[in-house]
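Practice record 12: protein with S-adenosylmethionine.
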Amino acid sequence: MTINGWAFTYVADLVKQMTAINLGPGKEYLVENRLAPLAREAGFRDVAALIGRVQASGDERLRRQIVEALTTNETSFFRDREPFTVLRQVVIPDLCRRRAGTRRITIWSAGCSSGQEPYSIAMTVIDHPLITSEWSVEILATDVSEEMLAKAKSGRYSQLEVNRGLPAPLLVRHFERCETDWRVVAPVRNLVRFQKLNLAEDFNLPFVDVVFLRNVLIYFDTPTKIDVLRRVREVLRPDGYLFLGGSETTLGLDDAFDRLVAGAGTFYRPRGAGMPEVAGDEPPVGGGAGPRFGTAAPMAARGSAVQASINPLGRR
Ligand SMILES: C[S@@+](CC[C@H](N)C(=O)[O-])C[C@H]1O[C@@H](n2cnc3c(N)ncnc32)[C@H](O)[C@@H]1O
């Protein structure tokens, strides 16, 4: 390892200041490994030399590249499956009922990485029997990483990437061949609007009905998590829905959210929104085997302020 404590602190402060990502002590190896390719490409002897140059010159381009290299962009299509099953079986039917007057639904994928999440949402929406041509659905997809946004906008994925989580029928229906890769077809791409947005700064967004904020909060410290959740709540409609990553929660951070469980899926609603009213019993997204909605979750509270299980017939 070439970096010393001082260089590590400089990088950790830079990343924290620009993204709120918390690189605590013990992440020296991560910094070294992530910055080594950048140092090589930019012609530096090693990572320490790269950091030394940035410290001395304040080179804005190198600073941005360092921050980009230290964002974790791991993602896949229909990641964890359940949120998309809940979106299809609970959220869309409920919102179609609630928004019957305007026929407008807005979904925000915050921290969208290379786009698999917002395109999974778009495929779920476009294939949904209740979303007819009279409906206007907008999916806003944001990230702090310009590199990830550029890839996401292209809608182009390798065979390896589509193999991760994308059911074959959806690949056939919503992708076209692009040399050895696959590209999301225009009708699905056009549902998604990509925008650079730093969650650590004010959002200035219109109200949204659903927020996917998945596997992003884990990189922030507790005060930042609290602040981001509060501001997400301010743009989420009072009867909206929030999805977090499997290891994330609002518990202990924002008690103005209620935690709800449907089958194997967990989601959050602003306190007082209560249980969604849905009917029907549709198969999991993409068809095939998967968690059946409303069969698994017990009513027992699991430490949340309010937790309830629901089933597709609205019975508890
Ligand atoms: C691990 S990925 C999660 C992608 C996707 N949500 C999922 O669950 O598969 C985390 C993403 O959050 C983004 N991110 C990190 N800090 C951010 C910030 N302050 N504002 C916006 N996005 C941020 C990263 O660039 C990265 O693309």
